[in-house]
Design a protein that fits this description.
Length: about 525
Amino acid sequence: MTEKANTPQAAESRAFTRGMAGMTAANLVTKALGYVRDALLVAVFGAGALADAYYAAFRLVNVFRRTAGEGALNAVFIPRLEKEKLAGPAAAQAFFSSAWTVVFALSAALAACGILFREQFTLLTAWGFRGDREQFALTALLAAVLMPHLLFVNVSALFTAALNSARRFFLPGLAPAAFSLSVVALLLAFRAGLLPALDPRGMIIAVAAVASASGLIQAALLLPALFREGYRLKFSNPFSGLSAAPALLAAAPAAVTLAQDQVSLLINTLYASFLPAGAITAIYNSARLVQFPVSLFAAAAAAVSLPELAGRSAAGDMAGFRARLKDAMAASWLIMLPAAAGIAVTALPVCRALFEHGRFSPQDSLVTADALFWLAAGLPAYGFNKVAASSLYALGRPKAPLAIVSGQLALNALLCLAFMGSMGAGGLMLATSLSSWAAALAFLAELNRRAGFSPLADLPLLRPALAAAASALAALLLREALAPYGPLAVTAAAVPAAVAVYFLLLKLLRVEELRLVTGGRF
């Protein structure tokens, strides 16, 4: 073994790769089950008014979940918990108890408000439904049914943050699969006649109820691992001793910043409610497909690197901080770039293969593929933004991410207005991509100023770009050659072939950072 391979920096890079591999594997399972769930939903309900109502309601709950819980907790809770762990297990437990009390109380209050004021909240995602009283009432009802999910998943987010701080990533990444498994089981039971027959409206309400309850299963799956790490669920006075209240109040800007993608999609969904039926469903399904590489790699890189970045920042080790930041950014770039190129080439056959079943029509596939094409253009930017926002929070610089994301959201809203009339759902997705690239440039400039990170100096830009272009060309050639055999054949051949071409070229071009996503096994 070489001397370089034995350095602390090399060992830390290997630890980062192992953690990312575990989280990526868990996310892969979760996302695959999610696509099965989504395919069943559109097969049963199509891309019409019922699906639009469900996805508009779910978008509302998802934004609250990401802003109040999952997005902010990792960024704010983990750095503070890392500091308390230095003082010993008792201090860590005291802080955890305080955080548990605050998260539970605030999430319960928010869920209750969501139920009581469901119609007012529904305006955030479905203002355009006001002209159809039945459609608006159904969306509001579904939002109310889904609100308890907010409490359960925010509690799960706290458990996940504590486990991530303990460098445990696989189980927290796998637990959200409970949501998809629950909905899939319900839909299959309906189709098999194992449950009493319901009309379509009753079925979509049942789906929302099961989705809501699945959050409790998710939290329960994490409890044994949490207990093994020494944590206990004890309510405490959050305003005394090692209080979590100030730290979690600091999560307010982090909430908006780290849920930037969900808030952008909320804006898109609001505008889409003024478009013809099916636009909201197209936005949801295209976003789900783009979230596949984002969750598997960019979000995983951000989550796995955050504890190390926070620890380096707390210790004043800026050289170590930059090294971990470079690893996380490089891992994200190496995946997001070819993903953007590949999705752009295969958008239509992928949408047809995944969704064009049952009541989901060929026209629905065209609308979804158009939205997917334009949203995929922002993939590298989404990856940069995920890692950059977490890095700035690890540095204790919350104001810059908030300012950048606020500008991004404002730009997204303006661009949506500009594009929706001529481009429909695709224009809304183009607005999200352009505003995300603007935010990425601002984030990278801030990281250069605060941590000395420069993408031109610290990232392999040209060689991965060449490899991504070649892989997209391979996918394009296979798409045309296999078109007569149907979208499933195109997807099954073009996607793995493009992946193989890309990684082979990275190896031939000697891109050293390839080890970050393969663990040095290729």
